[in-house]
Amino acid sequence: MTEAPAALIGVDWGSSNVRAYLMTGGGTILDAIASADGVATVAPGAFAATFRRLVGGWLDQWPALPVLASGMVGSRNGWREAPYVPCPADARAIAADLLAVEAAGRRVLIVPGLSCESEDGQPDVMRGEEVEILGIATQGARLVVLPGSHCKWVAVDEEEIARFQTFVTGELFAALRDHTLIGAFARTAPMGAPGEAFARGVLRGASAAQGADGSGLIGALFGARSLPLTGKLAEADAGDYLSGLLIGAEIVEARRRFPRENPQVAGASALAQRYLAAFAVLGERASAAPPGAAARGLLVVARQAGLL
Amino acid sequence: MTEAPAALIGVDWGSSNVRAYLMTGGGTILDAIASADGVATVAPGAFAATFRRLVGGWLDQWPALPVLASGMVGSRNGWREAPYVPCPADARAIAADLLAVEAAGRRVLIVPGLSCESEDGQPDVMRGEEVEILGIATQGARLVVLPGSHCKWVAVDEEEIARFQTFVTGELFAALRDHTLIGAFARTAPMGAPGEAFARGVLRGASAAQGADGSGLIGALFGARSLPLTGKLAEADAGDYLSGLLIGAEIVEARRRFPRENPQVAGASALAQRYLAAFAVLGERASAAPPGAAARGLLVVARQAGLL
After folding, report:
1. Half-sphere exposure (CA, 13 Å, Cβ side) for A256?
2. Which residues in chain B have their CB less than 8 angstroms from residue A215's CB?
3. How many angstroms separate the CA atoms of A34 and A40, rounded?
4. Is residue B161 part of a domain?
5. B219/A249 Cβ within 8 A
6. In a shared domain, residues B24 and B134
7. Contact of B213 with A120, CB cutoff 8 Å
8. A159 in a domain, yes or no?
9. A15 CB near a chain B CB, below 8 Å?
10. Helix (H, G, I), strand (E, B) or coil at A278
11. For residue B225, is it within any domain?
12. Chain B partners of A252 at a C-beta cutoff of 8 Å?
């Protein structure tokens, strides 16, 4: 059996990293490139040159291969701004709005991000995650959680992205830990695998978000200081506790809008492991999403766009 | 009628500032000193010398006058640690636990802070605010709100401090504004008097803390970015909106534990004005606490300690 030929160059181009894939039409990854040339590091006007430097070898070797790029590369600060596609949106709707740019005589198709509006009128946006979700949705997911600075919860209906919401949990944790007095104990505490203090934080954050016992999140946050200060939590556990507190609160909040379905947690990061641990603490059935979602999602969009 | 003689040197010695008062037994302030020699700026072992430098003139002129000091001066990083007095506590209980230190042959009595435990077992502490509250309580207050980095809500019962809780609203606002992507618009926005965007933020924060429309605080925070990003909030209003969001959420949270009573908001700061505006937006009756609370509270403690 001969190896299937390369059929797509897919680029997942985020703020801080780029991952590029040389793929067959069946989704086999023949070659991959990872680099720190994220959108935030590329000067305006330098995207075509950066692109050429990153995947020039593939372009030369495969002069007719289509190129698809997703992520912050399509933002205002990226190569060119690709307007958001409103939810609900499936791969076909997304593929219908690809934005073409030119580099080294080749056409690069940029995948647009998605927009959404919550019941209370708050707008929401994503760029890049939509491709990952399409990659996960092919395997039957109905609720996907993508942990990160801005964690996304996404409802999927028959491979259509129905709606989503952003929770600023990761960014909130970093700002509190690094720049507040209540985060001072957490700042010096080691962060290993989630342990007992994490579980305690998850339960406390969940009750706070529920308003149980007359509590709430802003008040519960003071515990990250007052518990170690009064010897009721080991100082070394303060970071784990604070992390649990925020993730526990997020899960309760998010479950108001995304009830019932068992979540699939995307990514293999330590943070994704924390989310899986938090779901377990709260007695919820959650699973890790299958790996390789971004590459698979790029292939889904490429197919809908007739590139394959 | 001759002027009443000086009867007390009272020092309100916080982390970043010192205010000292030369007072008569009836509470008239004969002289006052304000300085930036807060506890955070004084080297360990240098408190006696700093004290002498600040109020040496009064000490020389009034060789028999009692000296009472409150605030972070009694913390672990202060002059000497004065153990917390548990709530409920009145002026007599606080006066019973004054801690004496020596400086220039004079005795300085340090007022202890208060500790408290909430219904869900979270410990809470204050240092310095208890004196302010005693000063306000003499005028009949039953619920006092002291805005700041760590805002305190305090229930007062017949001039006894019944219980209190800390909300980290101010510190949360600063960390989000100065150190996150969702705070980027707020960071560059001017902060004037609270306006329409503030009111909008208060209402949104209040619904989020109530979990109304399936919302919650961590999700609502993303609005500080997504609303200006999509043109649904002027960029110049982002700071006012974020400030309102957090204060509105705090008020709803705090009202779970401190219902019914009309709050008195302590201090004449711009932040205190924001709290009064937020209470008004939520249809609550709140008033400004009478000024001069710290000096009056020091006098209350001095009387209970038999110093006058």
Report:
1. 24
2. 118-120, 122, 253, 256-257
3. 16
4. no
5. no
6. yes
7. yes
8. no
9. no
10. helix
11. yes
12. 216
**Residues in A touching B182 (Cβ below 8 Å):** 150, 168, 171
Which three-class secondary structure state does DSSP give residue B99? strand
Chain A stretch 51-110, residues whose beta carbon is closer than 8 A to a beta carbon of chain B: none
Residues of B in contact with A221 (CB under 8 A): 168, 172
Dump pLDDT digits (tens) for A196-234.
Answer: 999 999 999 999 999 998 899 999 999 999 999 989 999
pLDDT category, B116, cuts 50, 70, 90? very high
Give how many domains chain A has, as a whole number. Answer: 2
Q: Indicate whether A10 and A135 sit together in one domain.
A: yes
Domain-located, residue A1: no
Instruction: Give residue B107's domain range.
Output: 6-139+292-304
DSSP annotation of A307: -
The answer to whether the CB atoms of A165 and B119 lie below 8 A apart is no
Q: Is A14 exposed, middle or buried (0-12, 13-18, 19+ CB in 10 A)?
A: buried
| Cα–Cα distance measured from residue B295 to residue A282, given in angstroms and rounded to the nearest whole number | 49
Asked whether the beta carbons of residue A216 and residue B180 sit closer than 8 angstroms, the reply is no
Q: Is A148 helix (H, G, I), strand (E, B) or coil?
A: coil
Residues A127 and A233 in one domain: no
Residues B173 and B268 placed together within one structural domain of the fold: yes
Nearest residue in chain A measured CA to CA from B181:
A171
| Domain co-membership, A100 together with A178 | no
Mark whether A61 and A186 lie in a shared domain: no
Kindly compute the dihedral angle of the four CA atoms of residues A226, A231, A234, A237, in this order, to the nearest 10 degrees: -10
Minimal CA separation from B174 to chain A, in Å: 9
> Which tens digits make up the pLDDT trace of B124-173?
999 999 999 999 998 889 999 999 999 999 999 998 999 999 999 999 99
Q: How far apart are the first and last CA of chain B?
A: 21
Residue A20's Cα: distance from chain center in Å? 17
CATH code where residue B67 lies: 3.30.420.300
Say whether B211 and A253 touch across the interface (CB within 8 A). yes
Closest Cβ opposite residue A222 in set B124, B209, B213 = B124
Q: Which of B77, B153, B217, B218 to mutate to test the interface with A (most CBs of A within 10 A)?
A: B218
* CATH of residue A224: 3.30.420.310
From B306, B303, B307, B301, select the one nearest B94 (Cα to Cα).
B301
| Same-domain check for residues B259 and B198 | yes
A16 vs B168: CA distance, rounded Å:
31
Nearest residue, CB atoms, A218 vs list B168, B182, B232: B168
Give the pLDDT confidence of A73-113 residue by residue, as tens digits: 999 999 999 999 999 999 999 999 999 999 988 999 999 99
